[in-house]
Amino acid sequence: MNDLSHLAHARAPAVATGRDLLVDMLRGMALVFIVVDHINLIARDLGDIGTARLYLLIDVQLSDAAEIFVFLSGYVFGMVHGSPGRRLGPPDLARRTLRRIIQIFGAYVLTLVVVAALYAIFAAIRPLSPSWVEITQIYLLDVPGLALLAGMAKMMVTVFFVNILHLYILLLAYALPILLLWHRKPAAAVAISAALWFVAQFIDPMEMPRWAGMRAFNPLGWQVLFCAGMFLGTRRWLDTIRNRPEPRLVAIALAIVAAGFVLRLGVSRFGEDYLPRAIVDLAQLLAATAKPALGPARLINFAALTYLAWTLLPPAARLMRWRPARTLATLGSHSLEVFCIGTVMIMLGSLALHVIGGGFAAYVAVIGGVLVLYAAVGEITAWLLRKPARPAGVQSGPASPGRH
């Protein structure tokens, strides 16, 4: 992405240099949420932080940052490779999709090699607590080098949250034929995606293979979110609803979000103590079954949140006047690299909690360090991508479309 400083006075609602700034900002926010959420889980299991912690979307709604990441990844894929004027033929689409799959797989292997090396170094310096090894699942890397590489090649190693990369690889492979079908017979493409999602609702997560993290993300269910984003991206549908709220739809979406909040409370200690038993039982059922197959309540909740975000958030040009928004947009525009950095940050952050203690002070220090590091990554990336000032009288060529 090019320098974002000129956006403070921009009038265009969404795009600059071929990118959708709101999409980038929300993808960057999802990446930060994913890392913080995993550190929250590790801190909860490793120490005693109580209820004083950083609360995220997953703490107040049925859906979380994973839905944001998958949906917007599909939206960008459809927008870049399937929108009118940019539509690719089968050979070009296959070539670009394969190239992206190879990039993601290479980033996954490189990231885990770095994490495994850090693990070996720290283990050699001092003994690591068995509880930390178990909580972080770092023991999956505690195998001989060739066996570890074989596990990576088979996509069997899912330490931390790299199973989302596994899911992304599967979704891209599936997106290739379904996007081509969408161009010819859109109703058939939608029907196939919906049918696969419906089948996923009747599969016990524990019956799914361990390969590619399928027990956490059933690709038969999660493809519907990626495909929905991809189909909408080919028509740039989010542009048509941006900052154009319809009162009736807003009211429905707000009611769904309010219901999601109540159901999320149902799985908390507060819900156990104060909410009706029927709501608590329903909330616990949804919490136990919703994520692996992307259950109906979770999907509806995410759709409502998406509609509210695109209709009620300020225009992108106004958001980009806020420095954190510009940083998030930069992070989101380089999601694969930032995701891999986040994996390493989870490893280092959880190790810091293990070394300095799992109390609240340690938690604050680790979360603060993660946020500062992410901000530094965003600033450094923006600085590296900033075009040098051109001499007066020299006209620049057309802006490049940027990376997706």
Please, could you describe this protein's structure?
The chain is mainly α and 404 residues long. The protein has 17 helices and two strands. The chain has helices spanning 21-46, 65-81, 90-125, 130-136, 145-153, 163-184, 186-200, 219-234, 237-241, 247-266, 269-274, 277-293, 296-312, 316-319, 323-332, 335-356, 360-385; strands at residues 15-16, 19-20. The protein has a two-stranded antiparallel sheet with strand order 1-2. Helix 1 crosses helix 15, helix 2 (65-81) crosses helix 8 and helix 6 crosses helix 8 (219-234). The longest helix has 36 residues, at 90-125. Residues 1-17 and 394-402 have low confidence and may be disordered.
Using only C-alpha atoms, the radius of gyration works out to: 22 Å
Distance between the termini: 9 Å
Q: Which structural class best describes the helix and strand composition?
A: mainly alpha
Assess the beta-strand content as a share of residues: under 5%
- Quaternary state reads single chain
Helix percentage: 55-70%
| pLDDT < 50 stretches | 1-17, 394-402
Beta strands, count: 2
Using the alpha-carbon principal axes, give the shape.
globular
Mean of all residue-level pLDDT scores: 84
Number of helices: 17
Taking strands numbered 1, 2, ... along the chain, how are they ordered across the largest sheet?
1-2
Biggest β-sheet strands, sense, barrel: 2 strands, antiparallel
Order of helices and strands: EEHHHHHHHHHHHHHHHHH
Task: Give keywords.
404 residues; mainly alpha; two-stranded antiparallel sheet; disordered C terminus
